[in-house]
Protein: Non-homologous end-joining DNA ligase
Amino acid sequence: MPITEVEGRTLKLSHLDRVLWPATGTTKAELLHYYASVAEVLLPHIRGRQVSFVRTPDGVEGQRFFQKRPPAGTPDWVTVTDTLRNSGEVMDQVQVNDLATLIWAGNLSCVEIHTHQWKAGSPEAADRLVLDLDPGPDRTVVDCCRVALLLRDRLAEDGITLWAKTSGSKGLHLLAALRGASPGSAGAYAKRIAQELEVRHADTVISRMTRADRTGRVFIDWSQNSARKTTAAPYTVRARETPTVSAPLSWREVAAARRPERLVFTIADVPGRVAEAGDLLAGLLDPAAAAPLPG
Structure:
């Protein structure tokens, strides 16, 4: 079993040659290399937040499960914090605050990293707004881009700046930095905006959960702002057929989108994008970007 040292932490790495993505032959070693390559831009977006993982110990075509509580054998140097849930339950969850923890999690085949829209210890204070754009039947991520531009302009009217990233699956995630908000107020605002767009663009947008009504439309999922929900983190790998990434986009890329395949990025693509353009979501981390919700 290979032993390595990361930031002064000793890690035992296992089964590095295990194929996690059979369709591409991508191994656990390649997953770890990717996370190490993008840690500098990934960690600031998840540091201080409790995370949940999607684990695929036998690869993405095998068993998978959503891990909220700390995995068995979690080292004592991994930050674990508890939160009192609305149900009255106290739950421990891991924080991925450093490279050593990121590599430790990757070694457990924690392929996906999901975060709440609030910092650990402050579940009553939502510092992010999320709008999850999901294309219905016969729609693609290109249609999501058209809706994203509408949402960008609408939220700008309220003084809120949006940033975009692919979901790593079929759609887009739009993110904003908030101040003075709660999960409840953020969710109510997101719902109101989604309903407003549905009224204005009923042929292309839907805000209702019913799947039967989504054909030919883009669903604006406003419910991701709930305190009990998590969203795929920026730069996380997804447990899809191929190792796609939830990759930040520039608004120029969103506006120019014409072919869905041009907005699919894998672990082979993203480090180069980061080297060339840096973190396209860096503005989301600027305290000056945080905006209050309108009256």
About this structure: The CA atoms of residues 192 and 222 lie 9 Å apart. The two ends are 58 Å apart (CA to CA). The chain has a mean pLDDT of 95.
